[in-house]
């Protein structure tokens, strides 16, 4: 569906007619004028330029014949619409949905948006690096430019957004849908957060949904809640003789708000002053360029060579999970347009041994390839490849070459692991933090029951979704309510087991429960022994021996 205005073939033009003799007939002149009207009509770009044809008509038809010897019929000048300087204006010119809809659902969302200027300021700042590319991709598909506002509804234009249902990125792709549209997801990389790949996948998906439902409102609803659910709602209404528009279907609450939000946003972009909103200008020019890296590259080194901060590099490449680009690709990075050429030049002169930092590690008793890989935030496969190993067998004293972060992993604040740590350390008012190690058989459900917390909040504290898989040895943050009053002061206590101690005696002494002690500690057996160190979380305002 193309929403662009009709335009002329660029090879069509009007040639001026030379009147060399006063004996030329008036009929000839009138015929020329008629042809001029036909040709100039195709050069009107939009409704704002409708006066141009009338002006040509007056000058040509009503020009006195006696003066024709000294003049030429005027050449019709094409009316060229000025290129918008601001991306909001560019979106405004491409709006194509029914924005005159004043359904109560729309008006509810509109009232909220109209009261939140700060929200639009944040959205403008976040969208600035991505909006030009998204608009360009939407225009190439001929879709309404309201679709460029979908990431406002989905993620508030946060490329690292992650929902409790497991959706990720600007467009909030679920894992299965992302896979269906070629968005690879592995330890190194998540294509759902890749701005270029995910944008193309989302717009392709929207075109497919529009082709299936024949309606942009239904296509948007299907993007949010799934095409199967929307089709079932349509079938249900049709069987009862009811209307089958989006506004008549019994869809989930989230979906019934989703489409109205987008229409409300379209109304505000169309006429922000009407609703008391000021849209911060976003320049109508490319923000980033793609540069081939030629292989795996440490992100800190890439930031240094490109001349931008490490965080900015991750925000342009949010699909990267780790401290380097993936060993098996994608082998490119997005950098600001004005940095691309110098970055290419620096990469061309970078020695292969400087692409990554390497550490020589000597295998110790109890090591395994997987534990070493986890310790250095890499993969066993990469260690095998670097050290030319056929399998996972290692021996004590063996020397291994391991790629490691050049700047210390804590400085790569936007990697998946560091984002998770930041979330885990976000203080929860009125609770104390328990560092929990996942054991065999654990799930979000079993852990939430042990600590009397909700599954969704447990997942949120750890920047995960309830459906995500837990692995044995994984560290989780649990913000427990504790057993004291609202004035409790909870402190971590390291307790050394004494002779004659039992879990029940220790629990009584510190006013905690045996199950809590078991949750706070990983026991090799069901027995404790003198000298064993236990971690306890104790209300220090309550007396204990």
Write the layout of secondary structure elements.
Blueprint lengths: L25 H16 L9 H11 L25 H7 L10 H11 L2 H11 L3 H11 L8 H6 L19 H6 L14 H19 L2 H10 L1 H13 L13 H18 L17 E5 L6 H8 L3 H7 L15 E5 L3 H9 L8 E6 L6 H7 L4 H7 L12 E6 L11 H9 L7 E6 L6 H8 L3 H7 L13 E6 L9 E7 L6 H8 L3 H7 L12 E7 L6
Antiparallel strand pairs: 1-2, 3-4, 5-6, 7-8
Helix pairs in contact: 1-2, 4-12, 6-9, 9-10, 10-11, 10-12, 13-14
GO molecular function: lyase activity
Protein name: Membrane-bound lytic murein transglycosylase D
Family: Belongs to the transglycosylase Slt family.
Description:
The chain is mainly alpha-helical and 545 residues long. It is built from 22 helices and eight strands. Strands 1-2 form a two-stranded antiparallel sheet. Helix 9 packs across helix 10 (216-225) and helix 10 packs across helix 11.
Portion of residues within helices:
25-40%
Task: Determine the structural class based on helices, strands and strand pairing.
Answer: mainly alpha
Number of DSSP strand runs: 8
SSE series: HHHHHHHHHHHHEHHEHEHHEHEHHEEHHE
**Strand fraction:** 5-15%
How many helices does DSSP assign? Answer: 22
Mean pLDDT score, rounded? 81
Kindly report the spatial arrangement of strands forming the biggest sheet: 1-2
Ends distance: 77 Å
The biggest beta sheet reads:
2 strands, antiparallel
Low-confidence stretches: 1-71, 483-488
Q: Rg, please?
A: 33 Å
Based on Cα principal axes, name the global outline: globular
Domain LysM: 359-402, 434-478, 493-536
Family: Belongs to the transglycosylase Slt family.
GO molecular function, one term: lyase activity
Protein name: Membrane-bound lytic murein transglycosylase D
């Amino acid at each position: 569906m193309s929403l662009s205005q009709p335009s002329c073939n660029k090879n069509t033009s009007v040639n001026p007619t030379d009147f060399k003799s006063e004996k030329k007939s008036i009929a000839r002149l009138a015929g020329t004028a008629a042809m001029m009207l036909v040709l100039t009509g195709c050069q009107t770009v939009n409704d704002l330029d409708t006066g141009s044809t009338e002006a040509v008509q007056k000058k040509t038809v009503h020009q006195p014949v006696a003066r024709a010897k000294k003049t030429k019929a005027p050449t019709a000048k094409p009316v060229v619409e000025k290129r918008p300087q601001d991306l909001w204006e560019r979106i405004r010119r491409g709006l194509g949905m029914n924005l005159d809809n004043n359904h109560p659902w729309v008006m509810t969302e509109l009232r909220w948006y109209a009261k939140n200027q700060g929200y639009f300021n944040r959205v403008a700042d976040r969208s600035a690096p991505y909006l030009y590319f998204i608009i360009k991709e939407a225009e190439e598909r001929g879709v309404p430019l309201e679709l460029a506002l979908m990431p406002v509804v989905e993620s508030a234009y946060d490329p690292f957004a992650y929902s409790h249902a497991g959706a990720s990125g600007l467009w909030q792709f679920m894992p299965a849908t992302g896979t269906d549209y070629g968005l690879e997801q592995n330890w190194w990389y998540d294509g759902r957060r890749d701005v270029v790949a995910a944008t193309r996948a989302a717009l392709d998906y929207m075109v497919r949904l529009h082709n299936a439902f024949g309606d942009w409102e239904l296509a948007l609803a299907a993007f949010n809640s799934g095409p199967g659910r929307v089709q079932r709602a349509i079938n249900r209404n049709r069987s009862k003789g009811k209307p089958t528009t989006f506004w008549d279907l019994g869809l989930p609450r989230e979906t019934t708000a989703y489409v109205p939000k987008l229409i409300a946003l379209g109304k505000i972009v169309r006429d922000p002053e009407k609703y008391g909103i000021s849209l911060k200008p976003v320049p109508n020019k490319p923000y980033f360029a793609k540069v081939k890296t030629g292989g795996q590259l440490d992100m800190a080194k890439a930031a240094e060579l490109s001349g931008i901060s490490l965080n900015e590099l991750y925000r342009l490449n949010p699909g990267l999970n780790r401290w380097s680009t993936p060993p098996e690709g994608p082998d490119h990075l997005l950098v600001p347009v004005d940095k691309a050429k110098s970055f290419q030049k620096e990469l061309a002169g970078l020695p292969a041994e400087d692409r990554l930092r390497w550490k020589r590690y000597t295998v110790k008793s109890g090591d395994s390839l997987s534990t070493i890989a986890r310790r250095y935030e890499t993969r066993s496969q990469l260690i095998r490849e670097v050290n030319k190993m056929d399998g996972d067998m290692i021996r004590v004293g063996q020397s291994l070459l391991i790629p490691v972060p050049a700047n210390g992993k804590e400085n790569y604040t936007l990697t998946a692991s560091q984002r998770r740590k930041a979330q885990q350390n976000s203080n929860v008012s009125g609770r104390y933090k328990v560092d929990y190690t996942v054991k065999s058989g654990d799930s979000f459900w079993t852990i939430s029951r042990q600590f009397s917390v909700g599954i969704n909040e447990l997942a949120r504290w750890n920047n995960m979704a309830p459906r995500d898989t837990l692995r044995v040895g994984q560290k989780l943050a649990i913000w427990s309510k504790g057993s004291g009053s609202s004035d409790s002061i909870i402190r971590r206590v390291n307790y050394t087991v004494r002779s004659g101690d039992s879990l029940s005696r220790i629990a009584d002494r510190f006013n905690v429960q045996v199950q809590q002690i078991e949750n706070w500690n990983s026991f090799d057996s069901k027995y404790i022994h003198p000298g064993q160190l236990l971690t306890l979380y104790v209300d220090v305002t309550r007396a204990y021996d």
